[in-house]
Design brief:
Elements lengths: L7 E4 L3 E7 L5 E7 L5 E6 L2 E3 L2 E7 L6 E7 L2 E2 L4 E2 L13 E4 L30 E3 L20 E4 L1 H5 L13 H4 L2 H10 L3 E4 L9 H5 L28 H14 L3 E6 L16 H9 L2 E2 L2 E5 L14 H16 L5 E4 L7 E2 L2 E2 L4 H8 L7 E4 L19 E3 L1 H11 L6 H8 L3 H4 L9 E3 L9 H4 L35 H20 L3 E5 L27 H5 L1 H16 L21 E5 L3 E2 L4 H4 L3 E5 L5 E6 L5 E4 L7 E4 L5 E2 L3 E4 L3 E6 L8
Parallel strand pairs: 12-13, 12-23, 13-14, 14-17, 17-20, 20-21, 21-22, 22-23
Antiparallel strand pairs: 1-2, 2-6, 3-4, 3-7, 5-6, 7-11, 8-9, 10-11, 15-16, 18-19, 24-25, 24-26, 26-27, 27-32, 28-31, 29-32, 30-31
Helix pairs in contact: 9-10, 13-15
Amino acid sequence: MNKSLDLGANLDHNGANFSIFSANAERIELVLLNEEHVIERVIDLTHRSGDVWHQYVAGIKSGQCYAYRVYGQWAPHEGHRFNGAKLLLDPYARLISRMPIWDESLFGHDRSHDDLILNSADSAPYAPIGRVIEASTIVSPKPKIPWSDTIIYETHVRGLTIQNPNVRSEIRGTYLGVASEPILMHLKQLGVTTIELLPIYATLQDERLINHGLSQYWGYNPLSFFAPDPRFSSGGPSTAVDEFKAMVDVLHQNGFEVILDVVYNHTCEGNHLGPTLSWRGIDHSSYYITQSKQSRYLYDSSGCGNTLRVEHAFVRRLIMDSLRYWVEVMNVDGFRFDLTTSLLRERTRVNLQSGWLHMIQQDPILSQVKLIAEPWDLGTSGYQLGQYPYPWREWNDKYRDVIRRYWSGETRTTGMFATRIAGSSDLFSKGHRHPSSSINYVTSHDGFTLMDLVSFKKKDNLANLENNRDGTNANYSQNCGHEGATTDADVLACRERLRKSILTTLMVSQGVPMILGGDEFCRTQHGNNNPYCQDNDISWYDWKLADSQTNFLKFVQELVAFRKACPSLRRGRFLTGRIGEDGLPDATWWHPEGRVMNSDDWTRTQAFGMWLSAPDMLLICFNPTKDVIQFIIPNEYSWSWGLGWGDSALQDDSASVAPQSILILRSESPTLSR
C-alpha cells in the first residue's frame, strides 16, 4: 500500500508525509509555520501521482503548523481561481491552529473591482492554519442502541451548558461541559438515549454577521470536515480534538450515543464572490459544481452560495474519509446529514442511484452506524422525503407539520394525523423499510421551540437584522389568545395542555422521536424561529426554567419512561389492522361513540382513539377540541389509567378526555402517576 497517497499530514517516527489533491494545479508549495504562525520554511511538492501531490518531510513532529500555496491558472470564466498569494487550509487538517481573521487579502479577487480581477495581496497573516497531530484510534465501546429504542435529543454544544450554574465555569459552553455531571444527570433523568449535536466541525464566522455584531452560532458554514470547532474547546484550539474525544468517551460510558449534524453539501467559501480559504484555491472546478456554460458562477442548491461536486471521485473520497475518521478515530455513533439531496446531485440533477449513496450502503464501517437524512435541498427536485434506501432514516417534516396543524384545531387533518402517528407507511413502507425510518419531530433547531409554538402566531426575527424576512412563515403555530409572554392564567393553562399533548403525540407515535433540547423545561427563543446567528440569551438554555418548570419537566420524564415501558409504541413493523395470533388486530382506529372509525368519520371528527392490542394493550384518546369529549371504551377489557392530565377521567365503560388533551388507558401493566 502506497502510504504517500494517504491524503493529509500523516506522521511516522521520522517525520510526516504531506499529500493533497489537485487535478488542475501547476505547482504546490507546503508552507511550514511556527507556533506564532510565522512562516519558517517553504517546500515544493515535487512528487505527483495522478492528481495527488505529495512530499515526505523528515523531522516533522506533532504540533507542526502548516498550510499550502497552490499555483495555476487565474481563469474564472473557465472555473479556475488559483492564486499563489493565498495561504490555504489543508482540507484534511485534523486540527486548526488558527481560524481565519477577516481581511481583504483572504479574497482571491479584488473586491474593489469584480471577481475577474486577481487580488495579489498575501493572506498569510490572516489565513486559517492547520496543525499536524498524531493519529489515535483507541476508542471506548459504543452503546449500539437499537433504532426501535432510540430517543434523540437535539442540542448545541455551547447553548446547552453556557448558562448552567451547576457546570464548572471554565467548561461551560464546551465539549467537556456536555459531558459534565450536571448535564449527564439531567439527560439520564430525562431518559433520552442519543445526543444529536448541531455542527461541531470548524465553522467560519461570516464577515457580514461579525460586522453586525452577530455570530454563525449554529455552525452550518464548514471550514473543515475533519477539525472540531475550537470555539467549543476550553483549552483553546490545540486541545479541541482531545476534549471532543473525552466528551464522546464519557457520554458512551454513561450509555449515550453521539450523532453529529454534518454539512457536506456546501462550504464556507460561498459563491464566486466569497473568500479563498481552502478548496477554492486548491481546485475550484473540481470541488464545486459550476453553472452550465457559465463556469465563472457556481450552482447553489444549499442557499449558501455553492454546492460540493460530490460526483467527483476525490470530493466523494473527501466525504467518505471524513465520515470514517469521525467514526473510527473520534468514535461517534452516526450522522444527521444537512440538505442530503445535494449530495446526490450529479452536475445539477438528483440521482437517487448516486455513486456516493451506494458507497455508503456498501461501506463496512459507515453502513453500520446511524444515518439520518434531511431529505431535501433548495434545488430543482430537491424534496425527496421517503426516497432514501435502507439503512437510512429521514427527518419527517410532514409529520412535524401535520401534528402542529392537528393540535392547532385545524379541521380535516384527522386522517393525515393518524397516518403520521402510525409510522408514515405511505412514505416509508416500500423497500422493506420500517417505522423507524421516520425521524418524528415537532420542533428542531430550525423553527420555534415547543414553548414558542404555542405562544406565537407570527415569528419575531428582527434581532437577526434581516427585517424579519428570514425564517419560515409556515409555522402552524398558535398563541392561545395572547402573543408572547403573559401572566394570564387561562392562556398559560392552554399552553401547558398543548405542550403536553404535542410531546405525548411524539412519544406514542411509531417511529423514532426527536426532542429539541430545552423543550423539556419550556425554553423560549422569544418568537425567533431562525436564531442561527444568535449566540446569546435567545439561543442559550435558561436553566432557571428547569427549576421553575419542575412539574412540566417531571411530566416529560414520565412520558419518556412510559414510551420505554410500552413495546407497542416501538414496533418493528407498520400497523396493518390485520388479526394477529391473539385474535385481535394490531391496531384499531376508535370513534368516541364506541365503534371502529369508518371512512366518513375521518373528515367529520377531530377526536378519536388509537387502540393498540399487542404486545401490550393501549387505548390512546386524542382530543384537539376545546370541549370535553366522552369516549365509550371497549367494556370487555379491564382498563386502567395510563397517562393523562387536566379533567380527564376514567369511568366503568367510558372515559372523559379534557380539552386539547390526550388520555392513555392500559388494559394491563403498572400505571404511571396522574
